[in-house]
Amino acid sequence: MGEVGGHVLVVDDDETVRDVVRRYLEASGFTVEMAGDGTEGLRRFAERPADVVVLDVMMPGLNGLEVCRRLRQVSGVPVVMLTALGEEENRIAGLQLGADDYVTKPFSPKELSLRVASVLRRARMPIPEPAAEELTDGNLRLRLGARTATLDGAELALTAREFDLLAFFLGHPGTAFSRTDLLEKVWGWDFGDQSTVTVHVRRLREKIEEEPAKPVRVATVWGVGYRYDPGLSS
């Protein structure tokens, strides 16, 4: 795993956690910088942008969710959230704000090192050339090279992951995919939380469906996952 390398910023108010995480990450080939609270973490990132940020959710002052939100305003750096057992709402909120993965406390430092390596590897994957310049479905249009999407001529404010998911769906109409399939095929994740897919599908529906609670484009296939049905809302 050490061949991945990279600079990791660990933001956690627990000194013991920071020290254990630092030792495991350094043993795995990473260089590590530490911050004891959210304000310090943002300052350190501004001074020296990291390749990956490990971010505790529950911190005094600026909590991890607010730090993640502010990071996403200036950077697409991979973020791994640390959440306490039972904090499902915080975990989902972190994914909605753009976190890439999460680890539940108490956690295995080895698992955290693997997840840091994984999100960094994914971030470094080359972006393949699109097979087509545009994908369309009635009033929905994606320009792949420019990475823009419009609905009825109005530009959609899609995150990078939402755009990639929509492009994948448009490129594979009528085919049902499991959440695991989408994690791997859309974002190249060899492991990860399936709720990441659920969150991004919900956000995508809010932006492209006339009635998000009754989707006609991105259909749920019970017991499987999701399927894109073209032409049904044109």
TrEMBL record:
Gene3D superfamilies: 3.40.50.2300, 6.10.250.690, Winged helix-like DNA-binding domain superfamily/Winged helix DNA-binding domain. Keywords: DNA-binding, Phosphoprotein, Transcription, Transcription regulation. PROSITE patterns: OMPR_PHOB, RESPONSE_REGULATORY. Residues 132-230 form the OmpR/PhoB-type domain. The keyword Transcription regulation applies. Residues 7-120 form the Response regulatory domain. It holds the Pfam family Response_reg. Residues 132-230 bind DNA. The modification 4-aspartylphosphate is found at D56. It comes from the Bacteria. SMART domains: REC, Trans_reg_C. PANTHER family: DNA-BINDING DUAL TRANSCRIPTIONAL REGULATOR OMPR, REGULATOR OF RPOS. This is Response regulator transcription factor. It comes from Amycolatopsis minnesotensis.
